[in-house]
């Protein structure tokens, strides 16, 4: 007598043969929907003073329903440094992202590709 995985499943109606094979969709996570923004990539290049810097800002959802702002910076061509600051909701995180972006633009950074 042989049993298949489907036959041994404790929950009728669940296809155990395929349930673990399903790929997660981006919309499976409600926080992902709230924080789907384009990452900000800025650079500041001044050859006269040998300056070539990058600055990146992006929002990332946490596993606990919060939203983090990931900041990366450093000299172009290096891995640089990173800092992660977590906020309770997407609105606070988005506001922090926009404030950081405005601050960097005032200091001479420009979006990549401009």
TrEMBL record:
Q: Is the keyword Electron transport assigned to this protein? A: no
Keywords noted in UniProt: DNA-binding
What is a GO molecular function of this protein? DNA binding
InterPro entries on file: WGR_dom_sf, WGR_domain, YehF/YfeS-like_WGR
**What species was this sequence derived from?**
Ruegeria faecimaris
- Annotated ranges, domain WGR: 28-114
This chain belongs to the protein called WGR domain-containing protein, predicted DNA-binding domain in MolR
Is this entry keyworded Cell membrane?
Answer: no
